[in-house]
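Customer escalation, tier 2.

The customer says the design service returned an amino acid string that "doesn't look like it belongs to this structure." They asked us to rerun it and document both sides in this ticket. The original structure tokens are below, unchanged.
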């Protein structure tokens, strides 16, 4: 599990840099200020939690179910939270908002919160 957590931490961190640059350069001229702000929120939360994954991967032994759940909550939570925001922003910008992504964002946020709570309980 440790290798999975570290791999996703590095992957999500790298993608956060790419998406941040994409938003700042390619989308800045095409998105409204509100949409760009939402996109940036997705990038920030992705980076924060990528760093949390890396730290958890370095500090936790992942020897029990709770510690494994920390990793999965962050991995899945990042994907659902940030990537649903990206999808909502880009599809809204193109005039065809994918409304089904709306409920996905808070579910991802709930998993991120659960990851932090499980992390607190596991240390």
């Amino acid at each position: 599990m440790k290798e999975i957590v570290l791999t996703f931490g590095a992957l999500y961190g790298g993608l956060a840099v790419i998406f941040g640059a994409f938003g700042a350069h390619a989308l800045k001229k095409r998105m409204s200020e509100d949409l760009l702000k939402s996109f940036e929120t997705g990038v920030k939360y992705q980076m924060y939690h990528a760093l949390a994954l890396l730290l958890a991967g370095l500090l936790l032994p992942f020897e029990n179910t709770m510690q494994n759940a920390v990793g999965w909550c962050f991995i899945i939570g990042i994907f659902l939270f940030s990537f649903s925001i990206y999808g909502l922003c880009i599809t809204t910008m193109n005039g065809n908002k994918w409304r089904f992504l709306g409920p996905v964002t808070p579910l991802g946020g709930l998993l991120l919160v659960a990851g932090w709570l499980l992390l607190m309980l596991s240390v």
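Tier 2 assessment: The sequence is consistent with the input. The chain has a mean pLDDT of 95. Residues 2-122 form one domain. Sent an explanation to the customer and offered a walkthrough call.
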